[in-house]
Specification:
By secondary structure, this protein is mainly alpha-helical. It has helices at 2-46, 49-80, 84-117, 128-149, 152-182, 187-219. The longest helix has 45 residues, at 2-46. The chain is elongated.
């Protein structure tokens, strides 16, 4: 009896260590994404080509961490045979890592646009885009907080914030289209800003996917289920 209890305890300890390592890698990935979004806005505001290039080069670390998380998830599934809540957590971690890696791709996409823009001034003041970026960073932090706290109700509230990003995107889209319609010479510069805003809008969508996974992890229900 004692030997069996000891074996179960060792198994639980090993599983908990694996889950903690996964969690730490997710937090590392989220930190890198947040940094990439912040730096992409700095590069845009200052037309900082060197910083934009660093963002592009730095995406490789996110890719590496994503595959490391995936391999660790597979290893735990193969060796620990987790069930119920532990299994949902591992599946959620794997999915969240994919979303974070793709968010890094979107930040990299913004940096590549900055490189293409060169020293040209934007076709309109950078108003909506920094607001969208701030909301993305806020949502990202909150989404990881809900993952750590296993708080499905807070996760739902984070998902609702994506509406504000969508609203800003639509407003910017309409304004840029109007500018480009009046002045054909502004089309290229207007298109750059549309691409940047679209990348931020997609980041917001990815964060919504993360909180949907948190809801699945904590409740076993798929999708954004509002009260």
């Amino acid at each position: 009896m004692g030997s069996n209890t000891s074996s179960v305890s060792r198994h639980r300890k090993s599983l908990d260590e694996g889950l903690n390592a996964l969690q730490n890698n997710l937090l590392r990935m989220a930190s890198l994404v947040d940094q990439a979004i912040d730096r992409s806005m700095q590069a845009l505001r200052n037309r900082d080509q060197a910083l934009a290039k660093k963002i592009v080069d730095g995406d490789a670390e996110l890719n590496r961490l994503r595959y490391e998380v995936e391999e660790a998830c597979l290893a735990i599934l193969a060796t620990q045979q987790p069930a119920a809540g532990d299994l949902r957590t591992i599946l959620a971690v794997d999915a969240i890592a994919v979303e974070l890696e793709r968010m890094g791709d979107h930040a990299e996409g913004i940096a590549k646009i900055v490189l293409r823009m060169g020293a040209e001034p934007p076709v309109k003041p950078l108003t909506e885009i920094p607001q969208m970026a701030d909301l993305c960073r806020q949502m990202l932090k909150q989404s990881l907080d809900t993952f750590l706290s296993r708080d499905s109700e807070a996760a739902r509230r984070v998902g609702e914030t994506d509406d504000a990003i969508d609203t800003l995107y639509r407003e910017l889209f309409d304004r840029l289209v109007a500018i480009m319609a009046r002045d054909p010479s502004a089309v290229e510069r207007g298109t750059y800003l549309l691409w940047i805003a679209h990348n931020l809008e997609r980041i917001g969508d990815r964060i919504t996917n993360i909180v949907e996974r948190v809801i699945f992890m904590t409740t076993g229900q798929m999708g954004m289920i509002y009260p």
